[in-house]
Amino acid sequence: MLVAEVQRQLVDARVADRQTAYHCPACHAPVRLHRGRQVPPYFAHLPQATCGVSSEGETPEHLRGKRQLAAFFRPWGPATLERVLPTIHQRADVWIGHQAQPVAVEFQCSPLALEAVAQRTAGYRQLGVYPLWLLGHRYRRQRLNWRLIERFASWLPQWGLCLLFWDVRRACLVVRHHLRQDAVGRYWGGQRRVGNWTQFLLGATPPMARPVLDDHRLRLQWTRGLQRQAPQLRLIQEQLYLTGHHLAGFPDVLATTQSTAPVFGQGLLLWRIVMGAWLFRGRPEITVAEVRTLSRRAYELVGGHAHGVRFQADHVLTSAQDQLLADLVAGRYLALSAQGWRVRQAPRWFRDYADWLKNHEKIKF
Predict the structure, then answer these.
(1) What is the C-alpha to C-alpha distance for residues 275 and 304, in angstroms, rounded to an integer?
(2) Quick one: pLDDT at residue 57?
(3) Are 34 and 62 in a shared domain?
(4) Range scoring the smallest mean pLDDT among 17-26, 125-134, 264-273, 319-328
(5) pTM reported for the whole predicted model
(6) Is 358 found in the same domain as 239?
(7) Which of 35, 204, 222, 269 falls 20 to 30 Å from 184 in CA-CA distance?
(8) Which residues lie across from 244 on neighbouring strands?
(9) Where do the Competence protein CoiA-like N-terminal domain residues begin and end (predicted)?
(10) Host domain of residue 73
């Protein structure tokens, strides 16, 4: 920790001396001042001591980062290091006394379980405090993945759904912004280095859309994946077998290159394929309730996630559902009815990749 207590007064480790007796501001147990050439001054509990307030391990990155973050966010409001919140047994790395709503800045450098992130976030919200998570070097070097997004992503004005990282070496913010997923589930988004608070407020424009998917390569890739018994594809193919279809032979009307918020698991395209098989299982009429049920089941099958710790994404599934139905109506496979939709004709499926390729080559030439 960077601050300790002396006679009910807080003292910064940078101006502390070894002769004074210091105590933890949270549990009031004795703490010891540490100074070194490589590590900034800090206080630590004595061996075997226990403290009921959550706190981050004091790595050099964490110690330096907290001070840098306090300086960076100071234009937002008065910045205080290591604000103790006894009612929720937490300690904010940096507390921003923003007039509209206090902000608790959490600088996360070490691994943290999903449950712990959710618990800390809920604690701050209980007090009406906005939690702002920033991630250290070990997180910044990771490729974009759902574990990162689920725990730490949030919607911010001008940045969309984003992840915030703090680069201690350069003392700047790194924002992975407008996070998206292409139709086959690959994560992407923009990245911007932010040197000051004014730049942070300006935000960034969304990045350009990803290139169009190679339909030929994708169907071949799925065919080979099924031959290797890829577990996730096998689960989807098992469902398609029940409707008499093969994954690599999906109809053209179900194809899409649309990107979505990064909550569709293996991607929007697989979800559309599963829905396209389930909607035409012999029923002449499809109700709104049935579509919603099938939509949610298909979403779970492809590994979709309705929300993260700090964001909700139910609207993404609703939008995808509406777009699929609109495509099927436009293709004259469905027609609107009083109960929902009436089946006009089923889309044509190919037997497999080879059958699709043979028909594709006929059309091409």
Answers:
(1) 14
(2) 59
(3) no
(4) 17-26
(5) 0.87
(6) yes
(7) 204
(8) none
(9) 17-53
(10) 55-202
